[in-house]
Each structure stands twice: as C-alpha cells, then as structure tokens.
Design goal:
The protein has 18 helices and no strands. The protein is mainly α. It has a domain of 73 residues. It is globular and about 65 Å long. It comes from Actinoallomurus acaciae. This is XRE family transcriptional regulator. InterPro entries: Cro/C1-type_HTH, TPR-like_helical_dom_sf.
C-alpha cells in the first residue's frame, strides 16, 4: 500500500505515533482546543494515515501546525497548480439556486426538519436516515452559496437544528463517529446563525457521544462548558434542559448529591408554557419526570418508580423510542427492589419497541438488564 502524504510526513520526521500525539496536543492547546483520549486519537490517526475518512478542519489545522506544511502538501486539498481550471457555470448555478431562497423557503426547510423529528420520535431513526442525509446536503449547499447575510443566518439556524437532530439519530443507531461529525457541523452552523441556544444544545448533546464511549468525565466537562458559555444568553427552557443534562452527567459519575441538586434546579427553572423559539426542545413536567426517573433509577433511588410511572403515562402508545427508554429505566428500578417478573414484562415490551425503532443504544441496555433477571 503506497504511503499517504500524512503518513509519509510522519515517517520523514521519524516520529512515533506517541510523539505525534504529544505534538498535536501542544498545537491544540495553543488554539484552546481539547483532544480526545490517546487511545481514541491513535485510532483516528491510524485511519487518516491509511487514507480512510476525511480529516476534519480542526485536525487539518493541527497537522499543518505540527508539520509546518500546507494543506495541499499533506493531501487535504489538491495542489492548486495541478488542478485544471473549471468552468464557472457550475458555481453560477449553485449561486442562482441559493439566491432564490427567501424566508418562506427557509420555513419550508424547517418544516421538513420538524416532520423528520416527529417521525423519528414515533418510529426511530433507522428508516429515515437517508432522507435526513439528503435534507442536510440540500440545506448545506444553500447555506454555502447564500450571499445575503440575513438569509444565510436563517439557513445556518436550520442547518444547526437539523444537524443536531441527525447527530442524536446517528448515536441512537450506533454510529458515534458519524454522530460526532453531525454535532461538529451543528455547532459551526449555530455560530454562524449567532444562536446561543442552538450552540449550547449541540455542544451538550455532543457530550452524549463521549458518555456512550465510556468517558463520563469529559462528557460532564463538555456539558458544564455549554452551560457556562450560554449563561445569561439563553431562555429558561434551555437552562432547564442544560440543568437536566448536567444531572445525567453527574449520575454517570456517581455523584448523587450533584444529580439531585441539578434535577431540583431543572424543576425550578421549568417554564409553565412551551417556548416557541425552541421547537427542538420538548420539555414538560412529564418529560422532566422521565429524565429524573432515569437518573434516580441509575442511582438506585426508591423515588425513581414514581417518576418513571408518571413519565410512562405520557408516552405509551405514541412515542416508541421514549416509551422503550422509560420501560428500560423501570426495569432497572424494579430490579433494585427485587421485582424480576415485572421488570421482565417491561423489558419484553421495550424489546418489541426497539425492534421497530432500531435503537442500538436501547438494545444494549436491554441486553445488560436481561442478564440480571436470570
């Protein structure tokens, strides 16, 4: 196999992967960026050096810093001198398509995202992933070629919302790398849209990728960062959601006191009415009860059953994935009380629902709990 430019450059310097890791971390620190754990980064570097997958913009910058090379020299872009000039017709057509976008078109794109969101809630992500990818590609192309700042910001807002939804869907079906990239796009679009709520939301949701990979510490730090950066700039409903997310991270770290403090804060912050400015956040008393029940069940708290039964009433027969999640949490809580038969009943129903939604995250939880019921 021929050496890729990236691998050839490391061999030229005579660096081991550990030495490269250290240099990348110094370069990241200079840019106020944080890199994943060494094992995770080593796997990523190996993929890139073997020519598998595209290198994200952040890492392109870091590699250029470390090696003192241009993007073209490292194979990230084609050498400008080697590229034949292309006709302007293609760009003109793309600019023309984007120029036809107005507020009504943006609203239609947002409506399509909302429709996918409702389908996802009821049937899961597996059947609509291709539709979602095509939708994102369409919005992304329009955003890249929109000239008018106002329209561009509106498109960026839809792109941020859509990408965050896609990130959660990808995580649910077991593709964390794809999920991470969706959240990266969501954060970038939220910054262009100048929307602190979407930026906080995408940042905190990205923490769940780390949590699913077993890195609860960094996941908690990322949610805390989202909360700190958005403080005073987001509506109460977003503050509520962030407090509940902090509680879940504290639960994963086994910090029962912090969990209860954050859950209580979420309950105090929860507005009495939905916030029309945050259509991607569906959070009410019953939804918060499900969240609270999930955390308390993981801590083995006896109050979990009451909260979860309250949450189950709100989603039974309507939201397949949410119902499966509550039933899995109920099974976990019931096992703490030694009620195996009822726990098994909830797990059987959850398994049927997961078969419909294709949620790999929930399937793994069911398998783990099923082993405890025998």
């Amino acid at each position: 196999m021929p050496l890729t430019p990236l691998r050839a450059r490391r061999k030229h310097h005579g660096w081991t992967k550990i030495q490269l890791d250290a240099r990348l971390r110094r370069a990241a620190k200079a840019r106020n960026e944080t890199l994943p754990q060494p094992e995770s980064l080593a796997r990523q570097i190996a993929r890139w050096e073997n020519g598998h997958g595209s290198v994200s913009p952040l890492y392109q910058q870091l590699f250029c810093d470390v090696y003192g090379c241009s993007p073209a020299e490292l194979g990230f872009i084609e050498d400008p001198e080697a590229v034949e000039p292309e006709p302007a017709e293609g760009l003109a057509a793309e600019l023309a398509r984007a120029s036809s976008v107005d507020a009504e078109v943006v609203n239609l794109l947002q409506a399509q995202t909302d429709s996918i969101r409702r389908l996802d809630a009821r049937q899961g992500a597996q059947l609509i992933r291709d539709q979602m990818r095509a939708h994102i590609a369409h919005i992304e192309e329009l955003t890249r070629h929109a000239v008018r700042p106002g329209i561009r910001r509106m498109l960026a807002k839809v792109l941020a919302d859509t990408s965050a939804l896609a990130g959660w869907q990808a995580l649910d079906v077991g593709t964390p790398r794809e999920s991470w990239e969706h959240f990266e796009r969501a954060k970038s679009a939220a910054r262009e849209a100048e929307d602190p709520s979407l930026l906080a939301f995408a940042t905190a949701e990205q923490a769940y990728v780390l949590l699913d990979m077993g890195d609860a510490r960094q996941a908690g730090e990322l949610v805390q960062y989202a909360h700190h950066e958005s403080s005073g700039a987001v509506p109460r409903l977003m503050e509520t959601w962030l407090a509940a997310a902090r509680a879940e991270m504290a639960t994963a770290l086994g910090d029962a006191d912090a969990t209860r403090t954050d859950l209580d804060q979420a309950a105090d912050l929860l507005p009495s009415e939905p916030d029309a400015a945050l259509p991607y956040l569906v959070l009410s008393d019953t939804h918060l009860a499900r969240w609270r029940g999930n955390c308390l069940a993981r801590l083995g708290d006896e109050d979990a059953l009451e909260e979860l039964n309250k949450g189950l009433e709100a989603v039974t027969g309507t939201y397949a994935r949410a119902e499966a999640g509550v039933r899995i949490d109920l099974a976990s809580a019931l096992l703490v009380h030694g009620e195996r038969d009822l726990a098994n009943e909830h797990l059987r129903t959850a398994q049927i629902l997961v078969g419909r939604t294709g949620s790999l995250r929930q399937k793994r939880r069911i398998e783990g709990l099923a082993a405890r019921t025998h």
